[in-house]
Amino acid sequence: MKSSVEPLKARRIYLLLRDRIVAGDLPPGGRLPGEPALAAEHAVSRVTVRRALDLLEKEGLVQRKPGSGTFVHDSRAVRPIVADLSNVLSHLIDMGRSTDVKLLSFGYVAPPEAIAESLGLKPGERVQRSVRVRLIDGEPFSYLTTHVPEWLGLTYSEAELAARPLLELIERSGVKTERATQAINATLAGPEPAAALDLEIGSPLLTLTRIVHDPSGRGVEHLHALYRPDRYSFHMDLVRIGDDGERRWSPALGRPRASDTAKAERAKAEKTKADKNKAGEKPTRGSRAIKQRS
């Protein structure tokens, strides 16, 4: 009985410490209490505490330094992927160019009924099915299963899919992607995704199901994606609309983010300065003041 309880206690301590690290209560570089102190605090054995620390270390949240202790790892240098929900399709292509991919499987199969229906396939039509893992800074963050109608899947090879974004390959074939519908949820990692994402079975994951359509409404891609929540998040800008008494939040589609606007302003200022330098002009006092404030 004890052998089955100890792993549960270790996971409980792991989750408690993980929450404190993520919330910032234990700052980057901070030293965790020693194993004896943690064991006394949680009324468990040091072996149980060690198991909890093993899980934190495997996730990259802490670093153990022999003779010094266990320290919170500064993960700020490794930026997670942030998806902009207001610009899904272009974001996916850009993401494909800035991350690495590992192709796990590639083949042509009869699709499940639900996927065939979502793509509007006729009875007997097959799909090109692939499973890929995307990595950022060498670390896996997403597990992607895609289904594409066979006639479209035949326009690219397995090697091309392993090297280029799927949406780019689809549009290269002459198919125009116009809109997509998607649903976001949460789930637990099964054996295969857990192994691919370097997680424990049962770890929490974000899940996204997306169906991409061409201008005629025909489905050209069905995507089921699983994401590590510590390495991927969804972003959406919102604005208040409506009359008084009926005000509500609505997606700010097509509006630039504040950070994007700031970047554009900085780029514009740098270009103006460079143009003046080429023309032999000296920067004005105003331009020096702007530089000092930035």
TrEMBL record:
Bias kind Basic and acidic residues: ranges: 257-284
Keywords carried by this UniProt record: DNA-binding, Transcription, Transcription regulation
Molecular function in Gene Ontology: DNA binding; DNA-binding transcription factor activity
Region (Disordered): 246-294
CDD domains named among the record's database cross-references: WHTH_GntR (cd07377)
A single GO BP: negative regulation of DNA-templated transcription
InterPro entries: Bact_HTH_transcr_reg, Chorismate_lyase_/UTRA_dom_sf, Tscrpt_reg_HTH_GntR, UTRA, WH-like_DNA-bd_sf, WH_DNA-bd_sf
Domain HTH gntR-type: 7-75
Name of the protein this chain belongs to: GntR family transcriptional regulator
